[in-house]
Specification:
- The longest helix is centred in the last third of the chain and has 39 residues.
- With 514 residues, the protein is mainly alpha-helical.
- The relative contact order is 0.20.
- The protein contains 19 helices and no strands.
- The structure holds phenylalanine (PHE) and sodium ion.
- Sodium ion binds next to α2.
Amino acid sequence: MAKTSDSWGSRMGLILAMAGNAVGLGNFLRFPVQAVQNGGGAFIIPYLVCFLLMGIPLLFIEWSSGRYGGKFGNHSTPYIFDSMVKGPILKYIGVFGIFTNLAIVAYYAYIESWTLSYVYHSIVGTFGGMSQGEVAGFFNSYVDVAQSTTGIPYEAIVFYVLCLSLNTYILSKGLGGVEKVAKIGMPLLILFGVFLAIRGYTLGTTGASDLFPDANAWDGLNFLWTPQYDTLLNPKVWLAAAGQIFFTLSVGMGTIHCYASYVNSKDDIALNAVSAGFMNGFVEVVLGSAIVIPIAAGYLGLDWVINNAGFGMAFQTMPYLFQQWGPILAAVAGVMWFGLLFFAGITSSLAMGTPWIGFMRDEFGWGQKKGAWSFGALALLMGLPTVFFYQEGVFDDYDYWGGTVSLVVFAFFEVILFAWIFGMEKGWKEINTGADIKIPLVYKFIIKFVTPVLLGWVFLASIPSMVDNILHKDTYNSTSFADEYYAEKFDGKGTSIGTVEEVKPQEVKFSFEN
Ligand code: PHE
Ligand code: NA
């Protein structure tokens, strides 16, 4: 293992980088859709329970394992596990923590590149005067890479390569680069998010559009926040909640290990872990739920939102709704919304690059530059199928296997390793070393018993949907970013399938339907 001098510049930088790692597209695109698809208020309780019983424990485990491995100069999960317990099997399990990131970044950076392109189109006013159908059609022709109806030939590829290059370049600068992006991106993200959320909260309770006189932004918020106890026994809702918690906190993938491995062995991790976790939660439940859902409900009505909830809302509906605010405000809102998504995305995709770089250093002594560029090349290689075969559902496969199943499996190994092999006594001591807060003792019990049992249950209960997935029955849902998205109603050639004005409210379903 090569000696590294790289480390975080300041505690603030570390927390922002960790928060940037967690706060991502998951907060703004995945969470609202998961919540709506799983019954709104019915989702929130399992979500919070999973946060406390799996999310927080895994944050403690990953931060402390990472810092522990860092003491031995290790920066990737295989080597970090190896420093905790000697044994080749564990080391191989750790390799998961590297490849998961490559699978996720392949499609994640693709979405990120859309946000970049949409910032551009918001500025130049591409969406001005477009009908809802045309805005939706624009996106559709955008992802159909062979078309050039958006103005730039192969635009999707151009922005994808641009976006990956940017990531690679920043990564080649080491932790300092990551920290700088987080210091600029996170405050802007919060600022933009607060603006848009205020708009979401104040859009009003009387129909904001003539199209849907009953449209009401508060219907959306009430739907999300009114607890519904009757669905608490539905396992599907619990699985969706657990999956969202993993994805959103970035646990079960090795990025937190890697970031934490650069923390000084005497510095706090307990308070840092909790702060980053809560910051992510704030951005998700306060900001993430206050933008897409209420704004869409404010113009199109809650029924529309429930029937059409899908990840495409962000790209196919929002630019159209912003147009209702006049050209200038529409441009500002577009830049804020897609800019926010871009910052959320890049601070996370940078995190996904670090485990690979750390591993190449641990294993082969590669330097930062070589690590970064090889990561960029691999991400491109793995990402091209998502770009070219987007419509064939490759995207879904990556998200399902890379972004959902692997996280649960990996997290399960982690907690067993930490609590049962490394040992809970030692583990608890590690978590509390240098701690700036007093962690309730009950967490010792939770980490040892509750978290592994819950994780095991989540895994077992997901087996049927995995089998379905392998058999391509496509009955899994509520796990994927994109599964609800691709619309057969589109003809794939960018032809508008009609506008809101042309169809009756109940029929406004341009997309998101299987
Ligand atoms: N937590 C990020 C989000 O919510 C996603 C992510 C996955 C980040 C894997 C890092 C590693 O969007
Ligand atoms: Na997140």
